[in-house]
Amino acid sequence: MEIKVSFGVIEGEQLNNWVFYRINYPRKGQMKKKINFDRFPCDICGSSDAVEVPFARFYTGNQPIHICKECGFVYVRDRRSSLEIANSWSNEIFGKGYTAHIPAVKARQVYVADFIDKNIGLKNKKVSEIGAGEGQFLDIIRKEYGACVFGIEPSGMNCKILSRLKIPYFQGTIEDYGAAHKKNQSDIVALLWTLENCLSCKDMLFGARKILSPNGYVVIATGSRILVPFKKPLGKYLSKNPSDTHSFRFSAQSLRGLLSATGFKVVFENSYIDSDILCIIARKGKMSKKNIWRKDNYLDVVDFFRRWHKESLFYKNTNN
Ligand SMILES: [Zn+2]
């Protein structure tokens, strides 16, 4: 039996003769600086009853991720302020040289652009992207599909790039933009690999509603990872970055649930079961008091992560 342990043992889980111990040691910088976290209930159903994702701490440097026992949503309970999360993105993640100008990111943006165009059309549509980044997606849909584009982006560095590309933009968050500008103006609001990285996924969709025309569409694209075949080792999915920089991990069901809770009606979905991408297009509808959707069984999600961890052990020598 091989045992992985260092610094001190709290508790362990056993799987096929592998024992993984949760190690409780301070993360870099934590000893000096007190960090304030708020504890959040499930963003979709509001329940606080949750269990930990098995083995997550092994990959995240001891940071827990939870599964809602009521609806199966995978989320991070303890989160810092949106400003601190944004600073983490700017300094710790983007600062390390993240760029969208790599084949994998461009490929997924082209996929999403084509999926939108085939289903609801892009020509002459007013498309706003929340979290426009370096503007690569907006540039693609402007040049290849004839869309009228607009970027909402908090990072000053990225806004300089948008300016160089002559893409009109607003520097700030969706909340700032919604408060400062006239409502109901976009035909399409795009959230590409962004909804999972904010403080409140619900507030972000309410922000999108505010700037959409009455029959406008929201397009959400994210990785298709939960309750689908494993597409990468778990160590390539979970990371030691501050866990609240990626607070939400969607299955197709939980994304439908969130859309339903924020007054959107799903109209198109890609073939997420055999794709790296989960892409859902939903139309803005009326808010209803009752939010009814098919929930994920949390035990299925627990079992899914156990199986994923076990599968990932086969690749443990490939830098994971
Ligand atoms: Zn829930």
Properties at a glance:
single chain, 320 residues, alpha/beta, Rossmann fold, seven-stranded mixed sheet, four-stranded antiparallel sheet, 16 strands, 30% helix, disordered N terminus, binds zinc ion
Summarize the structure.
The chain is α/β, with parallel strands linked by helices and 320 residues long.
Task: Please specify the SSE layout and strand pairing.
Layout: E1 2-4, E2 11-15, E3 18-22, E4 38-39, E5 50-52, H1 56-60, E6 66-68, E7 74-75, E8 78-79, H2 82-93, H3 103-120, E9 126-130, H4 136-145, E10 148-153, H5 156-164, E11 169-171, H6 174-180, E12 186-192, H7 201-211, E13 212-223, E14 248-249, H8 252-261, E15 264-269, E16 277-284, H9 298-312
Parallel strand pairs: 1-3, 9-10, 9-12, 10-11, 12-13
Antiparallel strand pairs: 2-3, 4-8, 5-6, 6-7, 7-14, 13-16, 15-16
Helix pairs in contact: 3-4
The chain binds zinc ion.
